[in-house]
UniProtKB/TrEMBL annotation:
InterPro entries: Adenylate-forming_domain (IPR052979). Keywords: Membrane, Transmembrane, Transmembrane helix. It comes from the Eukaryota. The chain crosses the membrane at residues 32-53, 115-139, 145-170, 190-209, 215-237, 330-358. Signal peptide: none annotated. This is AMP-dependent synthetase/ligase domain-containing protein.
Amino acid sequence: MTTTSAFYEDTILPEKRQSRLMRHARHTFLNVYRRLFSIVFIANVVGFVWITVDHHTLNLPVEALATAASANICVAILIRQEYIVNLLYAACLAVPPVAPLRLRRQLAKVYENGGIHSGAAIASTLWFALLTIVITYQFVKGEIILHSGAVLAITYILIAFLVMIVFFAYPAMRNLTHNTFEFTHRFAGWTAIGIFWVDLILLAFNTHYTTGTPVGLIIVRMPTLWFLIIITFHLALPWVRLRKVKFEAQNLSNHAVRLNFKEKLAPIRGVALSTSPFGQYHSFATFPNTAAQESDSQSIIVSSAGDWTKAQVGDESTERHYWMRGIPKIGVLGIATIFKSVVIVTTGSGIGPCLAFINLPENLRRPCRVLWSTPRPEMVYGQEICNMVLAADPEAIIWDSKVGGRPDMVKMTYELFTQSGAEAVFVISNPMLTRKLVFGLESRGVPAFGPIWDS
């Protein structure tokens, strides 16, 4: 265990590459998440310009606007599905470690796929806003004959729900009112799709009234129907696997608890837990419980960080039940095996997700160095956790910040990276330190990766 700055005090960090403007543009303002957002959004802008120029007036085809809105909602829903995310990771991991580092470095940013979700979600809201304007225009002109008041009212209610969802999903609002964000995303989202179904049927009846075509035939011919079917199916899909799971709690300290449960999982998977079936879900990374007799036993480390986690740490019961939904999803460290060797940097309870990587089966394991900074590691997390870290990396740096103070994590990480000859650095810490480390390393040419907290 290292508690002295001698390890890195002579380290001289190289100058950051490029100008201040360029490096912030590349690694912050135009990171992969925002690039994906821009691609999706610009593609929609092109479609928007094309359809408005082609028709010149507000008398735009309602069906085309509804199709554009529903198509974007469909994309936003699909990219958040656990099985889609796992497939994306699997596709990237199919690239062998002998592939050029530049390629693997780009593919390792697969965890920033949320840019597609937000880009499509914003675009769908704007398409529906345009649809609302067009329907209002047609209502004023008397072109909506059947159930005109209902069509207009439902359309306005739907756009209000979509705007509310987007508002609370904005990062500043999401961080300020995370519970509200989660509930509006879920329940307002479900309600919005239900309203969309009603709107679709009412619009189909209006078309039937003016053309005489059977309603069923009109609906079947509308692409929006098929997008709504896909959307509705995938909204329900995670809840099909809603189940109550038994956990054995091991209170490590007044700051952390280890939850053990029996379930066969692929390596480096995360699960979502809640104390009630439709309550707030919290995502945690799992790691193998090597001390258990059963080979399928998994563990989770929960540390006191918020109201919900504090309640779990303060609960003295040794047997608990939590609700789990969906299928386990690959986490950021799941892409680390694309590199030949890595440095794992973590603080506090971030060691939990890291244990999943450093304890991979032999056929998947990669050489790695570990840097773990935390106050009183043995007292807070137990000797067993410390031993698991040292078993994976006998020279692991376990920094007791109560003894050695807060280290210069950028310097220490850079020194470990250069000493080890690793290809990449993975950071699992709090949002502020993760962003600081990833930017500090990437701006110096070091491939660095870490969670982006986009949901």
